[in-house]
Amino acid sequence: MSVEEIPQKLPVYGPFEVIIHNTPQDCWLSFLGKVFDVTPLVKQYKGKDCIKPILAFAGKDVSHWFDERTGEIQHFIHPVTGVEVPYCPHGPIPDVACQVPCTQWRPLEGAPWWASSKYQVGLLTKCVRPLKIINMLLGRDIIMNVCCEDTFFRIRERYSIFSSEADSYTWVYMDKVVDMNKTMDENGIPDDREKMAEVGIPKSFYIPSVRLYFNDDLKHWEELTDDEQELDAEVCCVCKKNKEEKSA
Q1: Least packed by Cβ within 10 Å: which of 47, 51, 96, 193?
Q2: What is the H or E stretch that residue 195 is in?
């Protein structure tokens, strides 16, 4: 799978990251490849019926609300008036016009929330990939989901919740050191899940793995104080004396 160039200012999130933002105090939505933080919108319309569909889909993808060609709300022909009106299957949402003539109609002040960049916090990944990471020092391995657009620097950042010293390892795939500035695809780690599915093999049968080798980078090395150096010297003298007595 080829990865298109992505604006550097916008991070890429997976559905597994969006879904944890599912409360009125922390509400995210994804749609049409974008990730929005609509928490300010929830606060603005707190207690109103129009915010209920957004709360019901907090942390989920609502692409079915929108037209992929225009990026606008889906429309349909009203059966009574014969007029094209917004289609809101779960009830009205903020910044959507009334379906029938109504005294509550008001013109919008600026762009609707789904077209406003102030709510966008990132992009939604095109593909979530599993990756096995084997720590050769500790003899432990974990399987984690990553975005296909993630460089290995970003993957290492994700792995840091499992190891506080993630940046002290050399990452290796198939006896080749991984280029941390590149993605899995760019490092020659293919995604063969679709090919396996075509021949009846479960997609989870094989998961690509990278091995982590610890670098003795002395990151936590500290100079000894004068007292510690003196104590160290005394210990060395005692050890030397004991060694001489044994040899005698």
Answers
A1: 47
A2: helix 193-198
- To which residue do tokens 């390892």 refer? 169
pLDDT digits (tens, 9 = 90+) for 187-231: 999 999 999 999 999 988 999 999 999 987 666 556 555 555 555
Contact 38, 54 (CB under 8 A): yes
| Residue 215, C-beta contacts closer than 8 angstroms, at least 6 positions apart | 168, 169, 170
Amino acid at 102: C
Residues 242 and 148: their CA atoms lie apart, in Å, by 61
For residue 154, what are the contacts with CB-CB under 8 A and spacing of at least 6?
A: 146, 147
What is the signed CA dihedral for 177, 154, 17, 94, rounded to 10 degrees?
-140
The DSSP call for residue 73 is: B
Backbone angles phi, psi at 2, to 5 degrees: -85, 140
pTM, to two decimals: 0.75
Q: Over the Cα atoms of the chain, what is R_g?
A: 28
Burial class (CB in 10 A: 0-12, 13-18, 19+), 126: middle
Q: What percent of the chain is predicted at pLDDT more than 70?
A: 78
C-alpha 42, offset from chain centre:
23
Q: Is the C-alpha dihedral spanning 79, 85, 90, 94 positive or negative?
A: negative
Q: Give the C-alpha separation, 77 to 86, whole Å.
A: 9
As a whole number of angstroms, the distance between CA 108 and CA 15 comes to: 31
